[in-house]
Write a structure and sequence with these properties.
With 324 residues, the protein is mostly beta strands. It is built from no helices and 30 strands. A six-stranded antiparallel beta sheet has the order 14-15-16-17-18-19, with no helix packed on it. Keywords: Repeat, WD repeat.
Length: 324
Amino acid sequence: MPTVAPLDLEGHCIATAFLGGVPHFALADGVVHRLDHGHKWTELHDGLLSTAYDAARSRLITGGEDGKVCALGAGDAVEVLAEIGKKWVTSVAAGPQGAIAYATGKTASVRFSDGKVKDFVHPRSVEGIAFAPKGMRIGVARYNGATLHFPATEGKPVELEWAGAHTGITFSPDGNYLVTTMQENALHGWRLADGKHMRMSGYPLKVKSLSWSVKGKWLASSGAPAAIVWPFVGKDGPMGKAPLELGTRGNAAVTCVACHPSEEIVAIGYNDGMIIAARFADQKEVLLRRPGKGAITAMAWDDEERRIAFGSETGDCGVIDIAG
């Protein structure tokens, strides 16, 4: 039976991560809390807006209302990677070879490991940013589509058009697909080999959480009474295929999803604070946490694949030990 170690904080939890095996909880006020032989914390920003986990370097990349981009590593190690002045850093991403990317207004910037920065200015504001899994390439979510840049070269950007406001962005782990969340209740995708469109609609709510399964066979999403899990096997991705609906609860909505690091299982968080795990193959469910005080907004698995750090919009946080 799973056990839960609670951590009651005050404020909206934006992200959770395990750094050096220690669970961290990043709140919207800019303070990152951790459970490391007791409750400790680091004041990182004056208002936190965005985070990204850098798995290669076991660090959390953060962007704030104070115009700073920081990296928080294990043992409370903090490095300020960029200071942009009185501009909000609305999106950050971690890339290969220690590179990071961040967005302020209409500008997407890539900072290489040697400290050099390359800026890409867009006609409208940058709403999301992500690195491709292979090579030095970033994707930017914007109004009416997405743009691909190749920061290490002077090559012309690739424009992917689709009407509407695109608010977030992710590449499939194999680099074959690009998917964006939208202001409307839908996802949109492109097959990068030929630009073919993939429209994933029918959600009753906005999709605010996405998670790829191991090897990228499935893409789990929030925004419905169940976790909507799209199949990305075969050359056409999810087109013409029905998604899985895991963990259906008629009186609740899924607000956060986090796929298991090595198995086809997804942790599903709901707007009433409940968390379950569901297996793709047979849709079997296991209750991990009973309902709490607020909607689940963040979840992360540890490297040993037995613990999940979770956070909610009300600061109702904790760690679930799957093994009990």
